[in-house]
Amino acid sequence: MFSLIFDAKIAQSDDLLVSSINNEKRNEKNIKRDKYRNPFETLTFFEINRKKKILEISPGGGYYSEIISHYMKKTNNFFSTEYFVPPVEAVRKGQEKYNEFFEENKKDFGQINKIYFLKNNKLELEEKNFDLVLTFRNTHNWLGSNSAENVYQSIYDVMKKGGILGIVQHRADEKSNFNFKNGYVKESFIIRFLEDIGFKLLDKSDINKNTKDKKDYKNGVWTLPPRLVLGDIDRQKYLDIGESDRMTLKFIK
C-alpha cells in the first residue's frame, strides 16, 4: 500500500538539508513559498543524499536548485538541464537569469553542472548514471507540446538501474475532463505514461496536497499563486487558496 502522507519525523534527521533550506542566501521570494512547496518533506521523500548523482530537469526560477546546490556543494554531482537552443524568448531569458544568479553566488551555492536538451526535447547522453532525477511542475508543459515521451525516455536513458525519479505535478481530479493547457494532469495518467516507458511506481505521497484548490479556474493553475495572472481581481481569494494541489510521485528504474 502506498503511503498517502509522508511523515518527515520518521525520517533520519538531515541537518544539512535543513540548513540548505534555511540558507539566508536563497531568493526571498522562494523562501516565502516554502510553506506551499514543503521542500524538506519532498526531498526527503525522494531520498536525497549527498552521495548520489542528481539531475534536476527544467529548474525554472531555481526554487529547488537553490536548496539542492547548497546541499550538494563541493560534491560536483549536481546537474540541471538547459536548452541548447531555447524554444522561445521567455525560456532564453529564464535560463539567462538562472545562470547569472548561480554564477554570481557560486561561493554560497557551489557548482551546478549542465546537461542540455537538444532537438525534440531529447537530453544529450554524455552524462549518464544518475541516481536521482527530479522534476517539479513541468509535465503539463511537455504534454502540451507533445514532447513528454521524448523527455521521459531521455530521463530513463540517463538514469542508472535502480535510480529514483521524483515528480511533483499539478493534479487534476480523476473524474475531470482535463486538458494539459490548464496546467493540471491526472495522477493516474502520469503513472500509466511513465510505466509504459519502463519506470515502476515505488511510492506516492500527499505532502503537497491542497484540498482548497478547486481546479476550475478559467485561466488555469496560473490563477493561483505565485503567478496570480488575474492581478488584483479576487487576489485575496486566491492567496487564501494557496499554491496548487500537487501529486508527489516516486518511480524507480
Overview of this structure, please?
The chain is 34% helix and 20% strand. It is α/β, with parallel strands linked by helices. It has a single domain, classed as Vaccinia Virus protein VP39 (Rossmann fold), CATH 3.40.50.150. Strands 1, 2, 3, 4, 5, 6, 7 and 8 form an 8-stranded mixed beta sheet that branches. Strand 1, helix 5 (63-71) and strand 2 form a beta-alpha-beta unit. Helix 1 runs antiparallel to helix 5. The chain is globular and about 45 Å long. The two termini are 19 Å apart. Mean pLDDT is 93; it is low at 1-12.
CATH class: Alpha Beta
User: Whole-number radius of gyration?
Assistant: 17 Å
CATH topology: Rossmann fold
The H/E string reads HHHHEHEHHEEHHEEHEHE
Ranges where pLDDT stays below 50 over 5 or more residues in a row are: 1-12
Counting structural domains, the number is: 1
Q: What does the overall shape look like?
A: globular
Q: Short summary of the structure?
A:
The chain has helices at residues 15-21, 28-31, 34-37, 39-45, 63-71, 89-104, 106-109, 139-144, 148-158, 187-197, 235-241; strands at residues 54-57, 78-83, 113-117, 130-136, 159-172, 185-186, 200-205, 246-252. By secondary structure, the protein is of the alpha/beta class.
